[in-house]
TrEMBL record, chain B:
Signal peptide: none annotated. It is a peripheral membrane protein. This is ABC transporter ATP-binding protein. SUPFAM superfamilies: P-loop containing nucleoside triphosphate hydrolases. One of its GO terms (molecular function) is ATP hydrolysis activity. Residues 15-246, 263-508 form the ABC transporter domain. The keyword Translocase applies. Pfam families: ABC_tran. GO terms for cellular component: plasma membrane. It comes from Amphritea balenae. InterPro entries: AAA+_ATPase, ABC_carbohydrate_import_ATPase, ABC_transporter-like_ATP-bd, ABC_transporter-like_CS, P-loop_NTPase. It is found in: Cell membrane.
Length: 366, 524
């Protein structure tokens, strides 16, 4: 028996949707193997990772809380990825959104106006956009690779936030801890489910998903994004402005990441701290790809990857395993997904060892 | 040249293929094809684009492996492992698209293509010998980028001849040549044939085949549909075998009364941005409404650069290009469409259409400017679908339906769709590049009729093509581009194919003098 990859005449639509499922199964299987090799009951560990965290309604609400930023950033990134704009720096854009929104909250400290939250929201979006605008400008002006510039800017954003909470924005009554003041009530997102942390951000995320879905499938700009990504020369033929779409993708992706940052600091965190995100901006890249760059898919993938955060925490509590398990599972999922995506364009061909090849091989040199 | 003519057994063919089959995913390229080539014979392999000619010769030359079937070379059964093995056997091949390094010299390019090149001065000596023997003048020390296409082809031929082939495969060699250059090539090929070298000559140009070839094998849809002796056939009888269906040939009407100038190019010059691109020099051109203007020229003489400037993908100074008297050189594609310019690019997949989008989406691609496809920023899906259905019906686009992906259509049907999509937008000016490149004869005839119809309705149509026969059939007026310069334009009734051939080499016509025979002069 031998295996070989044979090109399909046409990409398989079925495999496009089957591939994430296959990747998930392979991830589960490898996870089981990994736990077993570590001398832990694999099934118990998988149960603790994937089932236990959402076995009660509080757990489920926590899942949603974690999914909100992932979905928001994921749909934003998927627009860019469709247009071949590789924004890897959503984490930095999230941080800058959090900084801008946090700034508004601290500036309006003790204000009870209902306008504080909307102002924070706008500030958050603008902050993220500003951070997305830098790679957009560098790319359209100097043709600088946005993968590198957006990624490097992530670290700049992280250090900037760190500088603020260690310095000018440090809580004056905070015993020198590197944290800002706790936001006042008017700067916190309303809870929509009692006794949980589930906040109004859930509704915002769903609205964004619906809007992006319509944008992609029903408007000219969505069509342009798809054409630029799929056939850049055809886009030029049609007169679509490539530079405009680079700006659009990075501003949209940055703005949504900034909104996620605002939601994090005025939702679950409630103040500025040195770490406002456990890597949501990076995980959202996986979310976008597992969700097949489709808003609905991204929503489902956002829930799945949110579970990986909860699962990691649960394993840490239940079995004393390091939280790195989260990263391991996320990595495996992306790895297997990329591998399985080969099957969209190729199929596996199994052949018995070929033996009917005629052995008459004439080395003629007439 | 190796001359094994005498020591051959009588009747033993140089090459014999028996039921050779090759399948690609979703396409049976060769379906048990037989081929027999005698020593010293010039054998034509005829067929339309996509009939499987290239696949067959790639198997002979060892680039592809057949799924089944046998190949017998000079009486011995062989499996050609790779092109080097083919060259060892004595098979040489000149490709349609050359693989040359533009920055290197002729000699260096030849050395790179050889399995065991001799020392450089020795090689130069050998090159000069072959060149004098076969009348292929070429300086071994010239850089390739400074050569014409015909000269580049000579490099490939010399490279093959240095290896002493007993079978030379030529893949559509005249598709890139002017009529005069083609004549020169035929003399070389006949000489080779007389010396005992077999030639497998791939073409779909029937006149050529009748002139040159002693026998022919005809392929259609990957099947062997017949063998014939071209001299005993008419072009029509061979075409019938190649195409297998009747179609109505486009008829150009009389040259219409000159309408107003609708497309005008005024002293357009442009430095190429690519290192071996072609600079455009002071191009002037007027296309009147109601006429079809043809631009002839061998590929790579500035057509691509000119077309980019016309479509608006590259901008020029405002008054270098005018539509209906209005300067649009500085405007992008969208503005030009608003002025009534439509455009059919040379490359169908990825330029004229998005391969993995449906035909509906591909209607939207270029139609959104002139058609009511948008309603307050939202796509009016039903209008787009209606338009697409119209294109499919009127232009006989054969496809599973309007939701089919553009990339799944055959070349001819996709081209009909693209041309139809542009024509249905009722352009004032239509610029078409290579309208029937790689398209079957039926589709080509339909496209030609549609272009003439559009001109008859008052549009200015500009067709840029490498296919001189096509331009001579459909153009009312013709000019040629060479080295980035445009010739004068002539009424089609004033010029012969040979005249246009001269224009394609940059020679200007002196219509008052008697025509000399330049082709003969070039050789002897």
């Amino acid at each position: 028996m031998s295996f070989s990859l044979v090109a399909r005449p046409q990409p398989s639509k079925l495999m496009v949707y089957l591939s994430p499922l296959l990747a998930l199964i392979l991830t589960l299987f490898s996870g089981f193997l990994m736990f077993s090799l570590m001398g832990i009951d694999g099934l118990d560990a998988l149960y603790a990772f994937f089932i236990l965290p959402i076995s009660d309604s509080y757990g489920f609400s926590e899942l949603l809380v974690k999914a909100i930023p992932l979905i928001l950033i994921g749909v934003g990134l998927s627009i860019g990825f469709k247009a071949n704009v590789w924004n890897i720096g959503a984490e930095g854009q999230l941080v800058m959104g959090a900084v801008a929104a946090g700034g508004v909250a601290l500036f309006a400290y003790e204000s009870e106006s209902i306008w504080v939250l909307p102002a924070m929201m706008i500030a958050g979006i603008l902050g993220g956009m500003a951070w997305g605008a830098v790679p957009a400008w560098l790319k359209t002006r100097f043709n600088a690779n946005e993968i590198l510039t957006s990624l490097m800017l992530t670290y700049v954003a992280g250090l900037f936030l760190s500088f603020l909470v260690h310095g000018p924005w440090r809580d004056p009554e905070g015993f020198n801890f590197p944290e800002s003041r706790l936001f006042s009530e008017s700067a916190l997102l309303p809870i929509i489910l009692e006794d949980t942390r589930l906040h109004i951000g859930m509704i915002i995320a769903l609205l964004v998903v619906a809007t992006i879905w319509i944008l992609l499938s029903k408007t000219l700009i969505g069509f342009q994004v798809k054409v630029v990504g799929s056939a850049p020369r055809a886009a030029r033929f049609a007169g679509f402005k490539e530079k405009g779409l680079i700006w659009f993708s990075l501003l949209l992706g940055g703005g949504l990441a900034g909104l996620a940052g605002m939601i994090e600091v005025s939702g679950p965190i409630g103040q500025l701290v040195p770490q406002v995100s456990p890597g949501y901006g990076f995980t959202a890249i996986i979310v976008a790809f597992v969700g097949r760059l489709h808003p609905l898919g991204v929503t489902i993938a956002g829930l799945l990857l949110a579970l990986s955060y909860l699962g990691g925490e649960t394993l840490q509590i239940e079995m004393g395993l390091p939280q790195a398990v989260t990263g391991v599972f996320q990595g495996m999922l992306l790895f297997f997904l990329l591998a399985c995506d080969v099957l969209i364009k190729f199929r596996i061909n199994m052949t018995q060892k070929a033996s009917k090849t005629e052995s008459v091989k004439q080395e003629a040199s007439a | 040249m190796k001359n094994n003519f005498d020591d051959q057994e009588i009747g033993q063919p140089r090459l014999l293929l028996q039921s050779v089959t090759k399948e690609f995913p979703g396409c049976l390229a060769n379906d048990s094809v037989d081929l027999r080539i005698e020593p010293g014979e010039i054998h034509a392999l005829l067929g339309e684009n996509g009939a499987g000619k290239s696949t067959l010769v790639k198997m002979i030359y060892g680039i592809l492996k057949p799924d089944s079937g046998t190949m017998i070379w000079e009486g011995n059964k062989v499996q050609v492992a790779n092109p080097a093995h083919a060259r060892d056997l004595g098979i040489g091949m000149v490709f349609q698209h050359f693989s040359l390094f533009e920055a290197l010299t002729v000699k260096e390019n030849i050395a790179l293509g050889m399995t065991n090149p001799p020392a450089m001065d020795q090689l130069e000596q050998q090159i000069l010998e072959v060149e004098t023997r076969y009348g292929l003048p070429l300086d071994p020390n010239r850089a390739v980028h400074s050569l014409s296409v015909g000269e580049k082809q000579r490099i490939e031929i010399v490279r093959c001849l240095l290896q002493d082939p007993s079978l030379l495969i030529m893949d559509e060699p005249t598709s890139v040549l002017t009529p005069q250059e083609a004549e020169t090539l035929f003399v070389t090929l006949r000489q080779l044939s007389e010396e005992g070298c077999s030639i497998l000559y791939i073409s779909h140009k029937l006149d050529e085949v009748r002139q040159l070839c002693q026998s022919a094998t005809i392929l259609r849809h990957g099947c062997n549909v017949g063998n014939c002796i071209p001299a005993n056939e008419t072009p029509a009888s061979m075409a019938a075998l190649m195409i297998g269906e009747e179609f109505e040939v486009a008829q150009r009407g009389e040259h219409p009364e000159a309408g107003p100038v609708t497309l005008e190019i005024r002293s357009l010059s442009r430095k190429s941005e690519q290192s071996f691109g072609i600079d455009l020099h002071d191009i002037n051109l007027e296309v009147h409404s109601g006429e079809l203007m043809g631009i002839a020229g061998v590929a790579g003489n500035g057509q691509a650069e000119l077309l980019e400037l016309l479509s608006g993908e590259v901008l020029s100074a405002a008054d270098e290009i005018l539509i209906g008297g209005e300067s649009i050189g500085h405007r992008g594609s969208t503005k030009r469409r608003q002025q009534g310019l439509c455009f059919v690019p040379e490359e169908r997949l990825g330029h004229g259409s998005v391969p993995d989008m449906s035909l509906n989406d591909n209607s939207l691609l270029s139609g959104f400017v002139s058609q009511p496809f948008l309603n307050k920023g939202f796509i009016a899906t039903e209008t787009v679908r209606k338009f697409t259905r119209q294109v499919i019906d009127l232009f006989d686009v054969r496809c599973p339906g309007q939701d089919a992906l553009a990339g799944s259509l055959s070349g001819g049907n996709l081209q009909k769709f693209i041309v139809g999509r542009e024509i249905l937008q009722q352009p004032k000016v239509l610029v078409v590049a290579q309208p029937t490149w790689g398209v079957d004869a039926g589709a080509a005839a339909l496209i030609h009729r549609a272009l003439l119809q559009l001109a008859a309705e008052g549009a200015a149509v500009l067709v840029v093509s490498q296919d001189l026969d096509e331009l001579l059939t459909i153009s009312h007026r013709i000019a040629a581009i060479c080295g980035g310069s445009m010739s004068e334009s002539y009424d089609i009734n004033e010029v012969s194919a040979e005249d246009v051939g001269l224009l394609m080499t940059g020679v200007s016509l002196d219509k008052s003098s008697t025509k000399p025979g330049p082709a003969q002069g070039a050789l002897q």
